[in-house]
Amino acid sequence: xxxxxxxxxxxxxxxxxxxxxxxxxxxxxxxxxxxxxxxxxxxxxxxxxxxxxxxxxxxxxxxxxxxxxxxxxxxxxxxxxxxxxxxxxxxxxxxxxxxxxxxxxxxxxxxxxxxxxxxxxxxxxxxxxxxxxxxxxxxxxxxxxxxxxxxxxxxxxxxxxxxxxxxxxxxxxxxxxxxxxxxxxxxxxxxxxxxxxxxxxxxxxxxxxxxxxxxxxxxxxxxxxxxxxxxxxxxxxxxxxxxxxxxxxxxxxxxxxxxxxxxxxxxxxxxxxxxxxxxxxxxxxxxxxxxxxxx
Length: 295
Hints:
The protein is an alpha/beta fold and 295 residues long. 31% of the residues lie in helices and 22% in strands. Strands 1, 2, 3, 4, 5, 6, 7, 8, 9, 10 and 11 form an eleven-stranded mixed sheet that branches. It is globular, with a radius of gyration of 19 Å.
């Protein structure tokens, strides 16, 4: 495979492009190529215009790209005949095509912060896969930010840790970043800013979700707003749709994202061990789990 060891990183960009200020420097040094992909008309996968500051975006890219690694890809990603997920998949495959064959293709969103990307890049380069596969990383959901710090979803067991497909030598996306390849798990975690947004963004998110009719969004929004450093330990099994996936919350004291990243490296955030990772990566155990439908 051509340029097998190159590290190529693609970002889907939309209204929260400004978060690149935090997420992109975390990967910049160890990435050989970076693609920022944004809809040419600044319209979402669902066909809705999103807020955008063109001069601000271009200035930020100039500031973050002293070595000229970044390519900005602008195409139509809101085809009306496609569903939102189909438009997302189309955009992700366009990113892969723009970055070319060969190398490790990594896809991220602007609100995903790698705790140790240097270690992850080194880990990828020592892999010698003999079959098509994805490398998946633990995804830590940041649930809320206040003046004291960040609350995050804290799994109690390994089977409650959420993993996301992040890297592959054979980029082909079928549902978001997912496809039918075998998944190799690793312990290089990513902080996902997901719910740790301003109130207005959370309310818009709740009202525009496909899940908005699956639960009482007003009640859930109130519970989210009421969360603070005094009561967060009382939040148990609080996922909005799927039971037993968000058992509790943890708290990281940090004034901003930069301080959060430093604290995250010093904190044991997930119940993940090398033995559990090894068992998860066993193809034979995977086949047995599928045969007997066990986790």
